[in-house]
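STRUCTURE REQUEST FORM
Protein name: Trans-4-hydroxy-L-proline dehydratase
Source organism: Sporomusa acidovorans
Requested output: structure tokens
Priority: standard
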Amino acid sequence: MYKFKSATERIKLMRELIRDRVIQTDAERALITTDSYKRNEHVVPIIKRPLATYDVCSKMTLRVEDFEIIVGNKAQNFLGSGINPEWSGTGWIPDGVEKGLWTLEADGLYHNPANEELKLTIAPEDVEALLSIRDYWKDKTVTATANAWQPDGYQEFSRLNVSSYVPGAPLMYIPTGHLTPGFEKIINVGYAAIRQHAQDWLDAHEGNLMGEDMNKYMFYKSAVIACDAATILVKRYGQTCLAKAAACQDPTRKAELTKMGESLLWISENPARTFWEACQGTIMYQLFLSLDSRYPACAFGRFDQYTWPFLKADLESGRITLDEAQEIVDAFFLKANCFYNAAPDFIAVTTGIGNTYQHTTIGGVNRDTGEDATNPVTYMVLETIGRLKLHDPTISLRINTNTPDELWECAIETSKLVGGLPLFQNDEIIIPGLMKELNFTLRDARDYSLIGCQEIVGSGNDYPAPNGVHAPHASVHYGVIFDMAINNGINPYNGTQCKLKTGYLYEMESFEKVKAAVKAMCSYIQKWHITVNNYSEYLTMYHAPHAGLSISIEGCMESGTDCVCGGAKYNSYGGTATGLATLADSLTTIKYMIFDKKLCTARELYDAVMANWEGYEPLRQRILSEVPHYGNDDPYADEQMKWICDVYSEICGECYSTRSKVYKGGLYGASDHVAQGYHTWATPDGRKTGEPLADATSPAQGRDHEGPTAVFNSICCLDHSRYMDGIALNLRIHPTALRNAAGIDKLRDMTKSYFKTGGMEVQYNVVSSETLRAAQADPQSYRDLVVRIAGYSAYFVELSRDCQNDIISRNENMF
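Status: completed
Returned output:
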């Protein structure tokens, strides 16, 4: 079986520092940005925003740690976090300090409440600095602008509590940016050439701007400023490395720092020349984007494909060894782990601790030839994740018919060490799907990558907004929708009535009428949700353009149009339906119990659900034990999963915006199925109020009992190629099933068979219930146990108790 190598000592040191992270927030970025905005207060956003980024890049504190070979810090401290006041004002931390929720400890820092899993600190002087600018930002943030007015009917919609648009929730509180930036362009073209492209257009049109030329002028001017900002940031890092080299007494480290400094000075304007420069250039651009606007999910894309040509040239010239290259890859992903921001406890509970959403894609096919594209960097990425036991970034392994068996073995061994990683993605479904659903060319479809949780996007040529125009506005709460559909449009959780009245379950005389009510409510709520997305897009085009992103995305520089305004080669947006298996099982229950077997009346089942099953436990147990459930290769149950997924897909197909003619449907989630369950009333399948919904496309927890092959057969009842926002299927495998080579072969062959049948994606947690319960009892002994929730992996001991129990409740498969 595949064996992982050991990491170097400095890599091990950095890994432990990250594992024991305590994130210190500082006010530096906020103060620089505030000063810039004050000086440019009346300048239009498309210019004001990159000017502020330039000020940040030219003035912020830079760090180069003694153990680092890949550099880049987001804030003043190692594992530090800054504040983006232009979006969120001064944030929640100063408020927490003022309310006495944070404690000033002996180290001179305020610490967040001890019962919160994520450890945060802030210095008193930084609190004072943030308080000094709080009033300035009170009504000047992008969020405040969006909240000032909403379309008619929005308040009623938000009161339903059926999506992320709920009373008090902002329409826009983080920037758009769920995509794969053009890293390949940055490292192969360089900032100077990109800047020159923009400047040439400006020079050619000076004093002669007619019609749409003015829009292009504003874009190209913003692009010049953005390129200058990126250049000065990278150049200052080069100078910092050289200054550190000058003071270094160790000749080996001195030479290393000197080389790093000289290389950074080069790539501040020019294309990368070496593997190290390609990796460092990628990190520098990612850092620049984070400083520019704290984009929430900038994925690294096909890292092994755009860095391999540089490593290949280095190996052929003798400039580097494979072991040295592996250390660079280790350092790259450890540095990526440093980009996690401070987050309030409720977000950490939902999205996990340490999840940066810098999704990285490896494997797949060559975009020009269609041949398998596996290369040494593909293995290096898995080596890094496996041997360092990193749960982040998420790694997707693209599978094709010619994926080497050795890579399969390496990937499965990685899954045994790091739960849920890699995600297995099927090229044979996704590539044709992109061409059919999104009109990608064959070459661009072959070059797809994954971002965020599961979302499928183009690489450096696509502005896909797959998590809603402004994340996290992607999810419509379909469990709530179902309850409303059988309760005359009333949400039983909060008693709110929507305008659409569908009747009560006990008034519906046939199963077809039940489905008609569900479909009508799905359409009503989904379209309302997307209407608000479209309003956000309207605001974004003026108030939140993205020059820093646009310089790298194919189509923007060519057309002179910002990516948020449709400049990218491909444009779409999308969302996800979490837990449709809960709806499918609820439909099956109604069909089986009321209309087919007549084991209870519609009124009896309705009353049981509205009573949260209190007083109806015998009926609930009969439903759980007797009614067929999705996930067991039973056509009776799977028919309803196909129907509800088809309904969702059809509704998405009716939606569009100014920028995009395509709204993509997805079937994935972070741990949204747990969070949605908190405010979803009981459902007819036997689920009680507050319990999680089914996760992603997985069967409801514990309802599958016929093994993984049956789950695969069930999920293939629907056409996966229709869901180009991504699909997630979680399966838990008992470790004893993979204790030898024969078990690994079985898992590989079973996955291949699933993919041939039409499956798009699967991810495996290789862990027993016994181990999970032991970890709950003794967290310290299992601190590095990684599991996959749905859209992210996490250290099990850092999950909320509800998320932990959700994992334990899933079926434990053998084969």
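Reviewer notes: The chain has a mean pLDDT of 96. The first strand starts at residue 23 and ends at 25.
Form closed.
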